[in-house]
Each structure stands twice: as structure tokens, then as C-alpha cells.
Amino acid sequence: MLAQASNAALQTVREGERLARTVMEVDLADQASRMRARRTVDQFGEGGTSATRSRMLGKQLRSLAWADASSSKAMADMQRLASKVRQLGISRDRARPGLVRRLLGLPDKKKFESLSASREEIEGLVASLSGSAEVLRQNSVALDGFESDIRDEREQITKDIALADAFESALVDAVGRAKADQRMSDVVRFVENEVLYHLEQQRSALQTLNAVNQQAAMSLSILRETNDALVQNMQLVTVATRHALDVAALLQRSREVHGEGKGATDDDASADTGALQDSLNELMRALDRHEAWRTGSAARRENAFHELQSISERASCDDDYA
Q: Burial level of 37, CB count in 10 A (0-12/13-18/19+)?
């Protein structure tokens, strides 16, 4: 590994020296030669491959950024589900099944009708969450790909900066030697005014591009991490919700088959509603875990999302200008 790094560094130095020779050997009387000397700098900065690839990556980030609406919808649906469950007045106290019995309509049929209406809304929210979860899973795949592209781009930019450094160092040394030769004064002026100055600007552009890509990598990592956590929370909540709905449906069918008050005792009702209460408690725990996560992660996720939007918009403006 060290040998490979050493060989790569040596090749960079040699390429920098080659570029410097191309510049110092310029024939100022030949316009084509002057253009070749200037073009040695074009591979760096805004006109180089790294900048072009980064602008393309910016377009990809922009498409990803707008897709984040799925996560916003998912979190809104989770909040609506939590609110709906709490509106039903569900107790977490296993020793107080009477409230759940009333909700199920054991003594009060209107409460049962209310729960039936809520069941349709809850099932709709669960279906919406399942759809959002699938979109977010696809986004996670895209995020992995974008992170890989960012890593590759940062590696390329780092190499470009190293080559620009080697080129500048070799060129400064060559200019220093040429200044002792009065016959090369015109070449020195050309190099200082039309090559070195432009090279410094391009190096600065590469360093800025590298900093932007580093920020993009950090934001992508945060977005992917929170994306995965949100999908996990949605899975826990949807499983718990479906379980609670299944238990309630079984209880409803049992009432329809046996009839209310025909041989059913308070102990029977308590056992039945206790099973439902357990499933509802598990649902509330899943919703509470999600709310605790959302409270701690929402701002972090939103900041990362807006940072990616800003990066993609800047890249788009640069691309339009180019």
C-alpha cells in the first residue's frame, strides 16, 4: 500500500514537471504554441473533468432532494396515526379494561361504531405508510449510489489538487531558473501573467469544490442514516398497528357470533379486551419510540436535506453559466 502511494506521488511529480516543460518551451511567436501552454491549466478548476462531473452529480442530488417529500409525508402520517390512536382514549393500564370495553361497544354500541370508522382511517394511514416505506427504501439505494459517486469524485479532486500543486511547484522552480537567463524574460512574463495566475485560480476552485463535496458526503450520510431509521420505525409501527387491528377484528367477530350479553361474563370481556389492550400498548410504544427519534433527528435531517438542495442548486447555476 505504501509502495503504491509512493509510486502514485512520484508519477504526480513527474506529470507536473512535464506540464511545466510544456509551458516553458512555449514559442511566443506561434499562436498555437501559446494556446497549448495555456491549456495545460484547463484540466483544473471550473473547466476540468472534476467540475463537470460535480455539476452532473449536482443534478442527481437535486432529483434526490425533491424525492424527500416521501419522508415528510411518512412522518406526517405517523403523527396522524399517533393522534388518532390517542383520540380513541386508549388506556395503557392493563388493570382498567373497562375503557377499552366501552370503546369496543360492549356496553355502548355508538363507541364501537366510532372505532369502526376510525379503523378505516387507520388502515388508510397504514397503507400510506407502506407505500412511503417502499419509496424510502428505493431512496436508500439511490443514496448508497450517490455516496459512492461522491467518494469517487472526492478521490479524483484530491488527485487533481495534488497534480496542480506539483505543476505549480515545478513551474515556479523553472521560472526561478529562467529569470537568470535574460533571453527568457518574455517567457517568464508570459508564464507569470497568463499561466501561473490562472493556475492559482483553478487550484482555488478545486479546493472549494473539494470542500463542497465533503459537505455533500456528510449530508448524504446523515440523510441515508435517518432514512433507514425512519423506515425501521415505520415497519415497527405498521406491524404493531396491523396486529392491533387483527385482534380488534377477532373480538368483533366473536361478539357477532356469540352475541352481546349471552353467557359472556365480565371476566370473559376483561380477558378479551386485555389482549387488545396489550396490542394497543405495543402500538403506542412503537409510536412513542418514533416520536422520540423524530424529536432528536428531524432538525438534523432537515438541515442535511437543505444543504443538499443548496449544493445541487449551486451546481445547476454553475452548469447553466458554463
A: buried
Instruction: Let me know: does 280 contact 97? Beta carbons within 8 Å.
Output: no
| Length of the chain as a residue count | 322
| Statement: the pTM of the whole predicted model exceeds 0.85 | no
> Tell me: the pLDDT tens digits for 16-60?
999 999 999 999 999 999 999 988 998 775 545 555 555 555 556
The better pLDDT of the pair 24, 2 is held by 24
Q: Provide the residue type at 154 as one letter.
A: R
> Rounded to whole angstroms, what are the CA distances from 318 to 56, 119, 209, 311?
11, 51, 12, 11
Bin 108: left if φ > 0, else alpha if -120 < ψ < 50, else beta. beta
Q: What is the pLDDT of residue 175?
A: 93
CA dist., res. 194 & res. 185, Å (int): 14
SS3 of residue 274 by DSSP: helix
